[in-house]
Specification:
single chain; mainly alpha; Four Helix Bundle (Hemerythrin (Met), subunit A); 0% strand
Length: 149
């Protein structure tokens, strides 16, 4: 459990360290890396490749929620060029992108509420809480991310 807490703390520190660099592409990549790590952990529990643990589930949901709250601030105009997979649709359809971010924030907040103080009580509760979050991730990536084949 301590290893998980340390890993989550390290991810948070790496994001805050990158934020100081004033590079929106690097910051959003760091946030996405933390999000991907949490999603991978959650997915492994959902597939029962990893034993379900409510505290780990809660940590994954907390990380997803923190990313949801901060991610949108790192797409300023002009940051679509360079080493990024951000699709031009982010700036071409700013209202649609904001709507997707708002839905992601709502979904992660609902998952966090469902998790309660100690995390979802069982795997079925966790799957119900995290399912809408994963669905939102997929739809946003399909529209607002350049796919590297």
């Amino acid at each position: 459990m301590k290893k998980i807490a340390l890993a989550v703390s390290a991810l948070c520190l790496s994001v805050s360290g990158v934020a100081a660099a004033d590079d929106p592409i690097a910051v959003r990549k760091s946030i996405m890396q933390a999000t991907a790590a949490s999603a991978g952990l959650a997915g492994a529990m959902m597939k029962e490749e990893l034993a379900y643990n409510p505290a780990i589930a809660k940590a994954a949901i907390l990380t997803l929620n923190a990313g949801a709250k901060s991610y949108g601030a790192f797409f300023p105009e002009g940051s679509g060029e360079g080493d990024t997979t951000a699709a031009p649709a982010i700036w071409e359809d700013a209202a649609g992108f904001q709507a997707a971010l708002d839905k992601y924030m709502t979904d992660t907040a609902a998952a966090l509420d469902a998790a309660g103080k100690d995390g979802p009580a069982d795997l079925a509760s966790f799957q119900a809480a995290i399912g809408p979050v994963f669905s939102n991730c997929k739809s946003c990536h399909e529209k607002f991310r350049v796919q590297n084949n």
